[in-house]
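Hello,

I think I submitted the SAJ job twice by accident. Can you confirm which output corresponds to this input? Input:
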Amino acid sequence: MKACFMGLGYIGLPTAVVAAKEGGVDVVGVDINPSVVEQTNAGHLHIVEPGMETMLQEVVSAGKLHASSTPEVADAYFMVVPTPFKGNHEPDVSYVEAATRAVLPLFKEGDLYVIESTSPVGTTEAMSKIIFSERPELKGKISVAYCPERVLPGNVIYELVHNDRVIGGLDEASTEKAVAFYSRFVKGTLHRTNARTAEMCKLTENSSRDVQIAFANELSLICDKAGINVWELIDLANKHPRVNILQPGCGVGGHCIAVDPYFITSDFPAESKLIAAAREINNYKAFWCAERVKNSILEFELREHRKPAVAMMGLAFKPDIDDLRESPAKNIVAKVMQGASNADIFVVEPNVTEHNVFKLTNYNQAYDKADIVVFLTAHTPFKSLPYRKDKVILDFCGIFKR
Ligand code: SAJ
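Support: Only one job matched these inputs. Its output is below.
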């Protein structure tokens, strides 16, 4: 069995490695970035993922995986490329289409074609139309399916193998063919469905989380006005056996939760009112936090007749990672710094050693020196800092839960 993975990013590369190592598949990984191809062939992991580099080195030196700039003839083809936005939050499937067009001349009878990229509903059907208009002789002779990933960065090796997966073919034979492939390395249950349901399932999972976080963020705004500690409130409400409220924060970031709901709202605007409102609330929460910081700086200046020192604690999009992509914390820091002539700002991110825009300060030093401390990301080391009554503390992510 030979598989060709189109896209060697945060999902494509780990999946290719695990398919080679655990599934015994011969893998070619294809990427348009020559540096990714070069690094992968040298056994160097270009993404951050614990344990993955050793696994990559094993499969490269065993000859089970190599990277290339061009696709090669295989038995199964996987589209694992980004689906970004174009215009006003409209999903852009042009990378999926380009990857599909690149591999379709190589297809032969009996092959499997799978899309893993998060995609709007109907993408698998749309790609199959392209495939069969270019290769009409293959109609009914190749399998076409959609199978989204669900892994959490930082825990990818475990989750790629142990998570359940949803697999939706354009017909039952396609679903079965895809199930047979994934069962080579997935120990979780493989749930069979159709392609449209599988596409919507991925969007639903991340939209569900976005809506739940929006509920927590909305509560935090209400509690701020009502003079109630939102952390205590949520802890108490969660004592109910059927209530499980998530934690408020400074907004929602990353490449998934803050993005995927728009794949639903752009195609079903009239129906997706709750999903759209959740996006607005989570975006508004980041704006609200930035305004809060700016107001605190002004209040301090009026009260103390000097500029405050401000510690901005955390840049990553969630706790204990170094990933700053689509991070509300990073955007809040940038916004506050834009009008920063009335404050000395220390930027803190313990998981990153250097940043090309922000000069980083050690978290202990910044906390010591600051008059105003703004907690943006709930990194574990912040939790061992002592609570200091002499400082203005804006705790947007529940470090002290006060
Ligand atoms: N967040 C909160 N409060 C919470 C939980 C999260 O504000 O109680 C924020 C985080 O700080 C972060 C954002 O939400 O800014 C997203 O973080 P996350 O941990 O919820 O999710 P991601 O983006 O790391 O990964 C998600 C996961 N999906 C779900 O949990 C439904 C993962 O399983 C998916 O594979 C991934 O998206 C993806 O690739 O789609």
